[in-house]
Amino acid sequence: MKNLLLLSLLTILTACSSGGGTIPDKTYYRFAEPQQPVQHASITKINRPSALGILGSRPIVAQNATGGLVQMNHNLWLESPKVLLQNYLIKYFSLTSTQHSGNSLMVEILHLEKKQNQAVIELKFSVSNHNDEIIFSQSYRQQNSMEHNSIVDFVHAINQSLAVIVEKFRSDFP
User: Fold this and answer.
1) Residue pLDDT, tens place only, 110-139
2) Burial code of 10-38, b = ≥16 C-beta within 10 A, e = fewer?
3) What are the pLDDT digits (tens) for 87-111?
4) Class of 26-172 per CATH?
């Protein structure tokens, strides 16, 4: 009787675990390397960006048909978008050290999501001087249509939009 019960339990567990498919692999993405790094004499430090709620997490965020935001289970950023963005900006502005005198750049991620066939990114840039006074604050938003409604196209569109946004910031805060 004990063996029959154990065999029945094992059969039930096997049936539940083979739910009719394989679990997809997790796929990781990162921001592209900046194309043309520049020296920016007035920015000497780039703080770790902040992000609203789930936008700072590693899973890629997408908007569902009802307008809600969901985290993708198998499509993730290689690191948190906050870390990826800080590394991108350090490379873009060719910073080699973290000096504490001069201006500090702070960035807030307001949007970083796939909205059906649209890639949406919005970043708020703030620059503070050595007295921690805000001397510049501006938000930049890019929303681009994707040829294919896929995560790969989303990541490519975000990379292109990020380059445009950072260049706009650089031209606004020379």
Assistant:
1) 999 999 999 999 999 999 998 999 999 999
2) eeeeeeeeeeeeeeeeeeebebeebeeee
3) 999 999 888 655 557 899 999 999 9
4) alpha beta
